[in-house]
Amino acid sequence: SLIIELNGMLRRLNEAFEEQKRFVSDVSHELRIPITIIQGYVDIIQTWGKDDEKLLVESLDSISAETSNMKFLVEKLLLLQTLGSGNYNFDLEKIDVNLYLQKAIFETKLLTQQHEIIGELSELTAFVLTDRSLLSQAIRSIVDNSIKYTNAGGSIRIGSRYNTHKVFISIKDSGCGIPKEYIQRVKERFFRVDSARNKNTGGSGLGLSIVNACIMALGGELVINSELGKGSEFIIVLPRYNFIKF
């Protein structure tokens, strides 16, 4: 029994070590790209840009954009680290799910005029005890993905349903969908289904990994249903407030 336990511990340590190596490698890769671009524009300014106002402005704009991207990436990595370490300071409050989602639907309509935004809220309501900031971050990230990967004229449906113990918040789009073999992997840090598509739409590959981390930290689960070419549904499952036990 001791040998079995030791082998299990060594296996888990090895998996954690490999995960850490992959994480460091991914972070290094993600930071190397904007740093290289910034260095390139600095070289251009030093070589030709000082005497070419148009080139100087273009270079400074690009440096500013890449700096903002790096700042955003570092902030997301720090959030992932804080959530993973269990040191996040939660600000829990009781939230009426339907009232909360009505506001989310209104805000989504402000974000895009090229998609049909449809509310499919339950006639009855329920409450969750949650951190509004984390939940908002998760929902907005999913909505942002749906807008990016759904062609103009497509639809995004935001809905709610409940059972005795759980609340289900659904965001469903009519976009390009995710290949079946990648549905679980999209929750991994820096994973991209299609790197070329990601280059066109922007993003670091951290979006759904942060959504998953936020939902797990809230005691919930992120369920993804998707079919290539037909769209995706992201379901946030949270404990219903009435049945949370302390």
Which terms would index this structure?
single chain, 246 residues, alpha+beta, five-stranded mixed β-sheet, two-stranded antiparallel ribbon, 7 strands, 52% helix
In brief:
The chain has 246 residues and is an alpha+beta fold. It has helices at residues 2-47, 53-85, 97-111, 132-148, 195-201, 207-217; strands at 92-96, 116-120, 127-131, 155-162, 166-173, 221-227, 231-239.
Summarize the helices and strands and which ones pair or pack.
Blueprint: H1 2-47, H2 53-85, E1 92-96, H3 97-111, E2 116-120, E3 127-131, H4 132-148, E4 155-162, E5 166-173, H5 195-201, H6 207-217, E6 221-227, E7 231-239
Parallel strand pairs: 2-4
Antiparallel strand pairs: 1-3, 4-5, 5-7, 6-7
Explained architecture:
The chain is of the alpha+beta class. Helices cover 52% and strands 19% of the residues. The chain has helices at 2-47, 53-85, 97-111, 132-148, 195-201, 207-217, and strands spanning 92-96, 116-120, 127-131, 155-162, 166-173, 221-227, 231-239. The strands form two sheets. The protein has a five-stranded mixed β-sheet. A two-stranded antiparallel ribbon has the order 1-3. Strand 4 (155-162) and strand 5 form a beta hairpin. Helix 4 runs antiparallel to helix 6 (207-217). The chain is globular. It starts with a helix and ends in a 7-residue tail after the last strand.
